Amino acid sequence: MKVKHVQSAVTAAAQMLWIRLVLMAFIFVPAATCLSAEVSGELKQWHKVTVTYTAPESYSETGDPNPFTDRRLDVVFVKGNKSYTVPGYFAADGDAANTGASEGKIWKAHFAPPETGNWGYSGKFYSGHHVHMSDNPGTPTATFSGDFKIAPTDKSGRDMRGKGWLEYVGGHYLRFKGTGEYFLKQGPDSPENLLAFEDFDGPFKNDGRNDKFVKRYSAHVKDWKTGDPTWKGGKGKGLIGAINYLASEGLNAFSFLPWARGDDFNVYPYVDWDVHLRMDVSRLDQWAIVLEHGTKMGFFLHFKTQEMESELMLDEGNMGPKCKPRGKVVQPQGRWSFTDGSVTRINGSGSLSIGTPPTDKDQDWAVLIKSLDAPPPTASGNEL
Fold first, then answer.
1. Both 145 and 171 in a single domain?
2. Which is nearest to 295 in space by CA: 88, 117, 112?
3. Hey, what long-range contacts does 234-239 have (CB within 8 A, 24 or more apart)?
């Protein structure tokens, strides 16, 4: 069905009623339990909006059922005839970055609305074996819906939230959707193991795998400023300060691997290096704090999905039960969909068939990224 445009003469109250009716049509499934969710954030154009859903039962990083494979949350955001589907994620107690929690009932999805005005949202929560990566998840076990109103952005200068999504427009340069200005990337392409930071949670710091490469960024603690984010009572100042330093030098991009297997074994989203279907919720939340600060400081975030040494480690490079959940978690189109300027590089050093043009395996990654690509629209490929 098509959502009809609401004429400007119709009152705001009537617009909200229409959105609610449309969302009811989208999510009506008799077998599902209708629940509620909360909306938080500054509720401004291009800023992060978070929908938080509290599940009836608690889940654990290491428990059964596995919340990363056997549960799934999809949230659809609607305005007029436009809709954007964003994958949600298991968030433990909702504040894992600070509490270190590994279990809880909280699920979240993020969105950066491209327009002001009235928006609606609907969520579907699914249960079942490997439902997280299924193309046909079946009937949801719970649904929810609601609405919110978005005001204009109040940001300017470097802040990406004052410029809008960074879009691929068919040419060599990306362009900001809000301001229409083109983006010229300039920034360090190293260290690839940027996220091998000692203040992040996880066993990587003393597991005997290249622990000498764990970073402290101690020289940049002085660049941290009052009001900047931290976690767990003051951790994170070194890396947050490093981003501030790059901004002070006029740079506007940095890149990183969310899974480093080559020269470094200290960056991965999992609870442990060789446990590939269980994510570390608190560490991922701490990563999110850093990436959100980067967005506020005007940085284009260059995600490198993997590198040559790790490209065949999961499912032999195929889009299988290990690759697909990781793709949804570590791509900017999934968990990090609040970022206004980002790019996905499928492979950091070569294609999935070394020395050849992109193969079917590369294309499978591109298909997954495209399926998640709302919002923000990003360029994707083996090279930008």
1. no
2. 112
3. 235/199, 236/197, 236/199, 236/286, 236/289, 236/290, 238/197, 238/199, 239/194, 239/197, 239/199, 239/215, 239/290
- pTM for this one? 0.83
**Residue pLDDT, tens place only, 215-247:** 999 999 999 999 999 999 999 999 999 999 999
The residues, ordered by sequence, that sit 6+ positions from 222 with a Cβ below 8 Å of its Cβ are 241
- Do 94 and 216 share a structural domain? no
Domain range for 324: 160-381
Candidates 30, 27, 25, 28; CA nearest to 1 is 25
**Domain boundary residue among 113, 131, 150?**
150
**The pLDDT of residue 375 is above 50:** no
120 in the same domain as 204: no
pLDDT number for residue 326: 57
- Pick from 83, 85, 103: nearest CA to 93: 103
Same domain flag for 145 and 288: no
Whether residue 172 sits in one domain with residue 144: no
Q: Are 68 and 195 part of one and the same domain?
A: no
Kindly report, residue by residue over 188-222, the tens digit of the pLDDT: 888 989 999 999 999 999 998 889 999 999 999 99
**Token pair of 147, please?**
């609405």
Of 353, 355, 354, 350, the C-alpha closest to 381 is: 350
| Tokens 């009623």, located at residue | 17
Q: Which of 150, 173, 191 is the last residue of a domain?
A: 150
Counting the structural domains of the chain, the total is 2
Residue 91: its pLDDT value, please? Answer: 96
Q: Is the previous residue joined to 65 through a cis bond, with omega within 30 degrees of 0? A: yes
In whole angstroms, give the CA distance from residue 206 to residue 200: 12
pLDDT digits (tens, 9 = 90+) for 265-304: 899 898 998 888 899 999 999 999 999 999 999 999 988 7
